[in-house]
C-alpha cells in the first residue's frame, strides 16, 4: 500500500511539474504583436481623450485562406460620439467588424482606422484600452456585484461605481439586493435577468472609461422594461462616447444616429431608420417583420 501511494505521488508530481512548465512557457509569450510601422512607442498613440472615430476603407477579410470572404470592400465612416448600429441577416459580417477593430484579426485588404490611424499602427495595449467591448451574452461571474463590476478596473472608486450604476440604470437593482453591491449574484449571474446581465457588462466596460464602446447585442429576447432600459442606456452613453452596436433587434436601434445595413459581406445602405425604411428594401422588410409600431 505505501509503495503504491508513493508511485501515485511521483506520478502526480510529474504531471504537476509538466503543467507548471507549460504555464510558465505561456506566461513568457509576448502579448503584444509589433505595430506594423516601426517607431510607434507606448504613449504615442493618437488623441488620448474624447470619443474615437472609426473608418473602414475598402476592407476585405476572410478568416482563413480557402474560406469565403466575410467582408468584400467594406467602407464606412463613423465620426466621434453618437450611436451607430449594424444590422443585417445572420452571417452578414456584423460581429466581424468588431473583431477587426479590436485587432483580433488583420484585414486582408484595405484599412481599418481608429482616430484616423490604421489599427495595425496602434500599440495593441493602447488600442484595447481605448475600447470597451461588450460581447453577446457577456459573462457575469460567481461573486458579488461589486467584484463583477471592478475586476477590469480595480482602482474604481465608490463614486465612480455609483455614477456608472446610475448611467446603466442598475441603481434600482442595487437597492433591491439584500446586501447592495456586496450581494453575491450567483453562479454566472443566474439570479439576474438577461437585460441586467448585459447592463452589468456595459457598466463594467464603462468603468474603464472607453472612448469607443462596441456592443454586440444579446440575441436573447428582453422583456419590454429591459429593452427600453438598454435603449436609454446606449443613448446616454453615446452622448460622450462613440458607440457601435451590432443589433439583433431593430427596436433597440431605431433612434441610432446612423444605421449601417450589411448583407453578405457588403455595406448595402447607410442612413437613419426613417431614411432606410424609405430607401432600402432589405431594411424595410426587416422593419416590417420586427417592428409592430414605428418608434422614435
Ligand atoms: P449574427 O447576426 O448571426 O451574429 P454576423 O452578421 O454578426 O451574424 P459574423 O459573426 O461577423 O456575422 O460572421 C460572419 C461569418 O463568418 C459567418 O458565416 C460565421 O460563421 C463566420 N465566422 C465567424 N467567426 C469565424 C471564425 N473565427 N472562423 C471562421 N469563420 C468565422
Low-confidence stretches: 38-47
In terms of structural class, how would the helical and strand content be classed?
alpha/beta
Largest sheet: 6 strands, mixed
Mean of residue pLDDT values: 87
| Count of helix runs | 10
Taking Cα atoms only, what radius of gyration do you get, to the nearest Å? 22 Å
Query: Order of strands in the sheet with the most strands?
Result: 6-7-8-3-9-10
How many distinct beta strands? 10
Unique bound compounds: adenosine-5'-triphosphate
Beta-strand residue percentage:
15-25%
Domain ABC transporter: 54-289
Protein name: ABC transporter ATP-binding protein
Subcellular location: Cell membrane
Question: How are the elements arranged and paired?
Answer:
Layout lengths: L1 H27 L25 E8 L9 E8 L4 E5 L6 H8 L7 E6 L2 E2 L5 H7 E4 L10 H6 L7 H10 L3 H6 L17 H13 L5 E5 L7 H14 L4 E5 L11 E6 L2 E6 L1 H7 L1 H10 L6
Parallel strand pairs: 3-8, 3-9, 6-7, 7-8
Antiparallel strand pairs: 1-2, 1-4, 4-5, 9-10
Helix pairs in contact: 5-7, 7-8, 9-10
The protein binds adenosine-5'-triphosphate.
Amino acid at each position: 500500500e505505501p509503495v503504491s501511494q508513493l508511485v501515485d505521488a511521483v506520478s502526480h508530481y510529474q504531471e504537476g511539474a509538466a503543467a507548471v512548465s507549460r504555464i510558465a512557457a505561456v506566461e513568457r509569450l509576448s502579448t503584444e504583436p509589433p505595430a506594423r510601422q516601426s517607431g510607434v512607442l507606448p504613449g504615442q498613440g493618437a488623441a488620448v481623450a474624447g470619443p474615437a472615430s472609426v473608418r473602414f476603407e475598402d476592407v476585405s477579410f476572410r478568416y482563413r485562406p480557402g474560406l469565403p470572404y466575410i467582408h468584400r470592400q467594406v467602407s464606412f465612416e463613423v465620426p466621434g460620439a453618437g450611436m451607430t448600429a449594424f444590422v443585417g441577416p445572420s452571417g452578414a459580417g456584423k460581429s466581424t467588424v468588431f473583431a477587426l477593430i479590436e485587432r483580433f484579426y488583420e484585414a486582408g485588404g484595405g484599412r481599418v482606422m481608429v482616430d484616423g490611424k490604421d489599427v495595425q499602427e496602434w500599440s495593441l495595449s493602447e488600442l484595447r484600452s481605448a475600447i470597451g467591448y461588450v460581447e453577446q451574452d457577456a459573462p457575469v461571474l460567481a461573486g458579488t456585484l461589486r467584484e463583477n463590476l471592478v475586476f477590469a478596473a480595480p482602482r474604481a472608486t465608490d463614486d465612480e461605481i455609483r455614477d456608472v450604476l446610475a448611467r446603466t440604470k442598475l441603481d434600482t437593482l442595487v437597492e433591491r439586493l439584500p446586501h447592495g453591491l456586496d450581494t453575491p449574484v450567483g453562479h454566472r449571474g443566474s439570479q439576474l435577468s438577461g437585460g441586467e446581465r448585459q447592463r452589468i457588462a456595459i457598466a463594467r466596460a464603462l468603468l474603464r472609461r472607453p472612448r469607443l464602446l462596441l456592443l454586440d447585442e444579446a440575441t436573447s429576447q428582453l422583456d419590454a422594461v429591459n429593452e427600453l432600459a438598454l435603449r436609454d442606456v446606449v443613448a446616454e452613453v453615446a452622448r460622450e462616447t462613440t458607440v457601435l452596436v451590432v443589433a439583433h433587434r431593430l427596436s433597440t436601434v431605431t433612434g441610432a444616429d446612423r444605421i449601417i445595413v450589411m448583407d453578405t459581406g457588403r455595406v448595402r445602405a447607410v442612413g437613419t431608420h426613417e431614411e432606410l425604411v424609405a430607401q432600402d428594401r432589405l431594411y424595410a422588410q426587416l422593419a416590417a417583420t420586427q417592428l409592430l409600431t414605428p418608434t422614435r
